[in-house]
Every structure is written in C-alpha cells, then in structure tokens.
Specification:
The chain is of the alpha/beta class. The protein folds into four domains: about 140 residues, Rossmann fold, CATH 3.40.50; about 140 residues, P-loop containing nucleotide triphosphate hydrolases (Rossmann fold), CATH 3.40.50; about 90 residues, Helicase, Ruva Protein, domain 3 (Orthogonal Bundle); about 55 residues. The strands form five sheets. Strands 1-3-2-4-5-6 form a six-stranded mixed beta sheet, with helices on both faces. The radius of gyration is 41 Å and the shape is elongated. It binds adenosine-5'-triphosphate (ATP) and magnesium ion (MG). The site of magnesium ion has 3 residues, from helix 7.
Length: about 475
C-alpha cells in the first residue's frame, strides 16, 4: 500500500468521532485499500503489509480490532496474531482467509484465539456488520474490565474504610476515652485491664452517670472478642416477657404477636459480649433464666423445646446496692455471686474530685469542637465550684453542665462562675459560706453543719463521714446532736 507503514487513513471530517482503531495486515495492497475504503469512514484504520509492521503499530496505537491475512510471506497470520495477543490482549482478532482449508482455519482459530474469519472475496456490508459486532464485543469486555477494576478499587476502599471504622470504634471505646487520674480510677483501670483478656463475668456497680456503660464497652473492645458483637440490653426498659423474648428469642406463634421466629440477643452476641444493664431490675423468673445461661451457657427461645449453647461473655451493671437487694430478697443470691465474679465499683464523682478538672477540660474541648468555639478554660473560681459540687448525676451531669455553659456563653474567652447553672452557684454558697453578720460561733456552727451534711451525702454513712472529716465517729455523733442535725 502507498501509505507509509502504520499511516492511519485519516479523513479530517471524521477524526474526532471515530473511537475505535482497526489494524489491518495483508501483503496484498489492493485488499488493504479495499478494506480501508469499507471501514475508513467509521473507524481509524491502520494498514500495513507485514506482521512485523503490524506489531510496531500495536506498540504505539490504541487498537480495538486486528484483522490479519492468513497467508503472508514472512510472518504468517496465525504467528502474528499470537504475538499480537501479548502486545494488546484486549483487542478482538479476525482472520482473512482466501480458501476454506478447514485444518489451517481450525489451527488459526484455536491458537490465534480468533473471534471470526472473513472469507475472501467478501461483501462490504457483511464485513461492516462483522466488524460492528466484533467492536460491540470489545466494548463489552473492556467495560467489564473497567467495572472489575472499579469494583476492585471499591472493595479496597471499603476494606480501608472498615479498618478505619474499626480503629475509630476502638478509639472511641478505648480506655483512653475514660478520663480519670485519681487513685480511685487508677484502680478501676487496673481491674479493667486484667479482666479484658479473660471471659470472666464482670459486675460494674456505681451511681448513675459514673461511666458504667463506658467501662463495659471498653472492656469488650480491649479483649479478644472485639471482632464480635457487643450487644447491650437495659433490663429495666422492658416488661418481663418482652425482655425474655429480646434476650432468648422466640419461636413463631409462641405468643400473640410472635409472627416469625426471632433470634435473641444471647444468640446475636455469640462469641461476643452481652451487656445486661440495670440487672437489678429483673424479675425473679428472669433471674432464674439468667442464672441458667451463666451456669450452663444454655439458652431456650420462648415456645421452643430445644436448648442450645452460646459462648457469650456477660457484663452486668447496676446502680443499686445489690447485697441490699439480696438481703431484701428482691435479687437471687446465687445469681448475685455468679455475676460478681469480678466486681468493678466505680466511685461517685464527689469521691474523686481530683478528676473534675480533667473531665471538665475534656468536655469543654469536645463542646468547643462540636459548637465551633474556642473557649480556653475556666476561671479559678468556676473550677472551684465545679470541683466542690456534690454531682448527684456524676460525670453525666458534669458533661451536661459544661455543654450547657458552652451553648449559653456566647463569644467568651473563658468560663466564669456567672456562666454556671443555679445549682452550682447557689449550692456552693450555702454549703460553705458563713451567714453574714453572724456571731462567730453561729457562723462556725453553720459551716460545721454544711460540712457534715456534705460528708454524709458523699460517703453515705456516719462512719465514712467521720473518717472524711478526720474526727472519731462518737465525736461526730455528739456534734450532730448538739447541732440539732438528727
Ligand atoms: N471517666 C469518664 N470519662 C469520660 N466520660 C465519661 C466518664 N464517665 C462517664 N462519662 C460520660 O458520662 C456519660 C454517662 O456515662 P455512662 O452512660 O457510662 O454512665 P452509667 O454509669 O452507665 O449511667 P447510668 O447508670 O445512668 O446508665 C456518658 O456520656 C459518658 O461518656
Ligand atoms: Mg448506663
């Protein structure tokens, strides 16, 4: 052919909208010319007279379809197509053949992995049709390749995201999200660390808002069960039958409204952890069932005659005084001992006032971030009020207090006493300040009353209060009598 090897037949009018390149290899120039004429309007056609030149084109041009003559002087069509696969495995291959020698055609089709052959002489329309079909097949395969690649990418991204989320969860529920440096909290951390790696049943006790939830999750996420589920159930939230169905599951038709089988949380938490919150609120029947799981690892869905085994770590929590509940026969003693294999008592915030500034700063930082503020901290007086408060709602209440301060403070640099809620401003003054214009003895008595009241509230007993105030119990008793406090 007169075109230089590898020259594309470029009609200027078509140069932009002919997406596919076709390479045609034939030693007869007349055939090249005729095929170029048939296909040149719709495709970018490259014509060459030998396999060697054809390979050179494949090195630098984007080709979707390769058409090769079967019989050529130096490199045969089959040889060429085999080599072409290495350079451009995606391109569709077709063979031109002058005579229907079935044997060599079969070889060509098998070895050259030929999509189709065109017999010489051909009808132009038939060639166009065959080429169009071949390119449709090409489009589909290359789309598949792209989709597969995109799917691979997406999978990779998901995997990375998953890992990120897992880390995020571990971070969020990690020990370091539990703020506290007091000796009391150090002790809590120590026990948590020891039990995390075991399957021991743990009972977490403490007043409301002390962080029992937080501690339960951290124990799960620090142990070997962290890849499995942590499911929490508040035992006070549901009436007995519903709670039973929630925890143990039920068979279809076991009771009105049981339209289908339902898996219970113990089964869901298999190999993971179940957190039984407010466990003291359970009824006697439920307590028996819980005892059974703890003893034998066996559960039986409501309405089922079969029991099955589950491997679940149990963490329970309560803000009640369980020994007291046992004494009053509201809680089974055997269950109590099963639950408190290890007990983690979390002290109330007022018994570890040293943690208040740490927690306050932590919550301030979080609130700053959430609300886009940059409040630097608290005035000394405000921090004194925070540290001195009795915090009946414990850490949760402190968290809410700080959130409220930040929300209402407007554009301030530092939080002062005037920002605190009434409870903190008023409570503090009445509990420690002496009455104005009073005689010294009256003032001292008022201070004593306030301190004794605080100590009693904090420790819950006269013995504890006396220890806290540094006086013998009898002195405290006498003092309270004289101060008319009983
Ligand atoms: N040591 C702590 N460090 C940081 N945040 C804490 C800490 N203790 C508690 N919190 C936060 O205080 C709030 C209450 O904690 P949590 O829900 O764990 O308390 P709880 O003991 O389970 O209370 P309840 O008995 O009412 O269920 C949560 O927002 C928790 O993140
Ligand atoms: Mg809780």
């Amino acid at each position: 052919m007169s075109e230089p090897a590898g020259g594309a037949i470029e009609g200027a009018r078509f140069s932009d909208d002919r997406p596919y390149g076709i390479l045609i290899v034939d030693d007869e120039e007349a055939i090249l010319e005729s095929l170029a004429l048939t296909l040149g309007t719709d495709y970018r056609v490259f014509t060459v007279t030998s396999g060697e030149e054809g390979l050179a084109i494949l090195e630098r041009e984007d080709v979707a379809l390769i058409v090769a003559d079967q019989v050529m002087p130096s490199m045969s069509g089959v040889e060429f197509l085999e080599k072409a696969i290495e350079r451009n495995p995606g391109a569709i291959r077709m063979m031109l053949t002058g005579y229907a020698d079935i044997g060599s055609l079969a070889r060509a089709i098998n070895e050259g992995r030929i999509y189709r052959y065109i017999a010489k002489p051909w009808e132009p329309d038939e060639v166009r049709l065959n080429v169009r079909r071949a390119l449709e097949a090409y489009a589909l395969t290359s789309e598949n390749v792209h989709l597969a690649a995109a799917l691979g990418d997406a999978n990779e991204r998901l995997r990375a995201e998953n890992l990120y989320l897992r880390r995020e969860v571990e971070r969020r529920y990690g020990f370091d999200q539990i703020i506290g440096a007091s000796p009391e909290m150090e002790r809590v951390f120590e026990v948590m660390e020891k039990v995390a790696e075991t399957d021991t049943t743990v009972l977490i006790t403490g007043e409301t808002g002390t962080g029992k939830d937080l501690v339960a999750r951290a124990i799960h996420h620090a142990g070997s069960r962290k890849e499995r589920r942590f499911v929490a159930q508040n035992c006070a939230a549901l009436p007995d039958t519903l709670l039973e169905s929630e925890l143990f599951g039920h068979k279809r038709g076991a009771f009105t409204g049981a339209h289908a089988d339902k898996q219970g949380l113990f089964a869901v938490a298999h190999r993971g952890t179940i957190f039984l919150d407010e466990v003291a609120e359970t009824q006697p029947g439920m307590q028996v069932r819980l005892l059974r799981v703890l003893q034998d690892g066996e559960i039986r869905p409501i309405g089922s005659s079969d029991t099955h085994n589950v491997d679940v770590r149990v963490i329970a929590a309560t803000n009640r005084d369980l020994p007291e509940e046992v004494k009053e026969e509201r809680f089974r003693e055997d269950l109590y001992y099963r639950l408190r294999v290890v007990e983690i008592p979390i002290p109330p915030l007022r018994a570890r006032r040293g943690d208040v500034p740490l927690l306050a700063d932590h919550f301030l930082e979080a609130a700053n971030r959430r609300m886009g503020r940059s409040i630097r901290g608290f005035t000394n007086a405000a921090m004194d009020r925070l540290s001195g408060h009795s915090w009946p709602g414990n850490v949760r209440q402190l968290e809410n207090e700080i959130e409220r301060c930040v929300a209402l403070s407007g554009d301030v640099d530092i939080l002062g006493v005037e920002m605190l809620s009434d409870e903190l401003r008023v409570g503090a003054t009445t509990s420690v300040a002496a009455p104005r214009d009073a005689l010294l003895n009256d003032a001292v008595d008022a201070l004593k009353r306030a301190m004794i009241r605080d100590a009693l509230q904090e420790t819950g007993s006269k013995t504890g209060a006396a220890r806290k105030l540094g006086i013998p119990r009898q002195s405290l008793q006498k003092m309270m009598k004289r101060l008319e406090m009983e």
